[in-house]
Design a protein that fits this description.
The complex is a heterodimer. Chain A has nine helices and no strands. Chain A is mainly alpha-helical. The termini of chain A are far apart. The interface between A and B is large, with 57 and 39 residues.
Chain lengths: 208, 131
C-alpha cells in the first residue's frame, strides 16, 4: 500500500495535548540540523535521531504487529528507509508524520502479509491487578471482547484506533500519516468507537 | 475538526489493558543494530556529499596545469634587460681592473686604439702559458 502523496500542506497539531505525541517540540538539538546531518551521512546525527524516535516507533510497531521481534525489525526497517529516502524528504515539513507514515505503511504491509499472526502473550500481572477471582474473570472477559472487537474492525479503523486511542496521536497527525482527510479520520474513529463501546456495553450489562 | 472528538480515557485504558503492555526491548542493543545496519548507507551519503567537490577539483586540474605551463613559458620567453645597481657595476669594474691587464681595460673602455689589441695578445699569451 503506497500512501505517499507529495504536496500536502503541513497540518498544525491541534486537539488535546498528548504528552508523548511524536509531534511534540523536539527537545534540545533542532530537528532540521539533525536531519541535515543525516543527509550528509553523519553517524552521530543519525544516532540522535534514532534515540529521539526509537521508543515511540517501537510502541507503534508493537501495536501493529503484536510481538517484540517483529516490532524491533519494523523499527529498524523504518529507520533504514528514512536513511534511504532522506533525500526525498522536504525539510520544510515536520519529520514526525513522514517517519510514522513509513513505519505504519510498512507495518500494515507486514500485518497483511502474515498468514498466522503471532502475538506476545499478555503478562500475568495484567490480570493480577484485579482484587478478586470474579473480578479477574470479568476483566479477562472484557479484554477478550475488546480484542475480538478490535480485530473485527476494518483495517483502517483499527489502525486509527490504535494510533488515536492507544498511542495518543492527534487526529491531524493520523490524517497526515495515513494521508486521508481529518473528516475521514473522524468518521472512522466514530464508527470504531461505536463498535468497541458495544463490546464494553455487553460487559457493563453483565457486570452491572 | 478533530477537536470535536473528545478523547475517551476509559476506552483508551480498556484498549491498552486488553492489548497488554508492550515488552521492553533492549534499547541499547536495538540502537546498536540500527547503527550497524546504517553504517554503509551513511558512508554512501558521505561519499555522495564529497563527490561534487572531487569532480570540481578534477575539472580544475587541467586548467591549473595549463595556466602553470603558460606562466612558465611567458616568464622564460619575455626578454629581460639586466639591471645592475651602481654598487654591482663598480664591483665588476674593480674586478675587471684587477683581473685584466691595463691594455684590455683600455680596449674595453674604448680608451685604447684598435692596434693595442695586438699588444694584449702578446701580453695574454705568456700569462696563460704560465698559468
Amino acid at each position: 500500500m503506497t500512501l505517499v502523496r507529495p504536496g500536502e500542506p503541513p497540518v498544525a497539531r491541534t486537539g488535546p495535548p498528548a504528552p508523548s505525541s511524536p509531534s511534540a517540540p523536539a527537545a534540545g538539538e533542532d530537528e532540521r540540523v539533525l536531519l541535515e546531518g543525516v543527509r550528509r551521512g553523519d553517524p552521530g546525527a543519525f544516532d540522535r535521531l534514532v534515540t529521539r524516535y526509537m521508543r515511540r516507533a517501537y510502541a507503534v510497531a508493537h501495536r501493529l504487529l503484536g510481538n517484540r521481534e517483529d516490532a524491533e525489525d519494523l523499527v529498524q526497517d523504518a529507520f533504514l528507509t528514512v536513511l534511504a529516502r532522506i533525500g526525498d524528504f522536504d525539510a520544510s515539513r515536520p519529520f514526525s508524520p513522514w517517519f510514522f507514515r513509513i513505519l505504519v505503511n510498512r507495518g500494515l504491509n507486514q500485518r497483511k502479509a502474515r498468514a498466522v499472526r503471532h502475538t506476545d502473550p499478555i503478562p500475568e500481572d495484567a490480570a493480577a491487578r484485579a482484587h478478586s477471582p470474579e473480578r479477574q474473570a470479568e476483566q479477562a472477559e472484557l479484554r477478550d471482547r475488546l480484542r475480538q472487537a478490535l480485530d473485527a474492525l476494518p483495517e483502517r479503523q483499527r489502525v486509527i484506533v490504535e494510533l488515536y486511542e492507544m498511542e495518543g496521536f492527534a487526529g491531524p497527525e493520523i490524517a497526515e500519516i495515513l494521508e486521508i482527510s481529518d473528516g475521514t479520520v473522524r468518521w472512522h474513529l466514530h464508527e470504531a468507537r461505536r463498535a468497541l463501546r458495544s463490546a464494553l456495553a455487553v460487559y457493563d450489562r453483565k457486570g452491572g | 475538526m478533530m477537536d470535536e472528538l473528545e478523547r475517551d480515557p476509559l476506552l483508551s485504558a480498556a484498549l491498552r489493558d486488553a492489548a497488554g503492555p508492550a515488552p521492553e526491548p533492549d534499547w541499547d542493543a536495538l540502537r546498536g543494530r540500527i547503527a550497524a545496519r546504517a553504517e554503509l548507507p551513511l558512508a554512501r551519503r558521505r561519499a555522495a556529499v564529497r563527490a561534487p567537490a572531487r569532480r570540481a577539483v578534477r575539472a580544475l586540474l587541467p586548467l591549473a596545469a595549463a595556466a602553470g605551463i603558460a606562466g612558465v613559458a611567458w616568464t622564460a620567453l619575455t626578454p629581460r634587460s639586466p639591471v645592475l645597481t651602481p654598487a654591482e657595476r663598480s664591483e665588476i669594474d674593480a674586478a675587471v681592473r684587477e683581473g685584466l691587464p691595463d691594455q684590455v681595460h683600455l680596449l674595453l673602455t674604448g680608451e685604447a686604439a684598435d692596434a693595442a689589441l695586438l699588444d694584449v695578445v702578446d701580453v695574454r699569451a705568456p700569462a696563460e702559458r704560465g698559468g
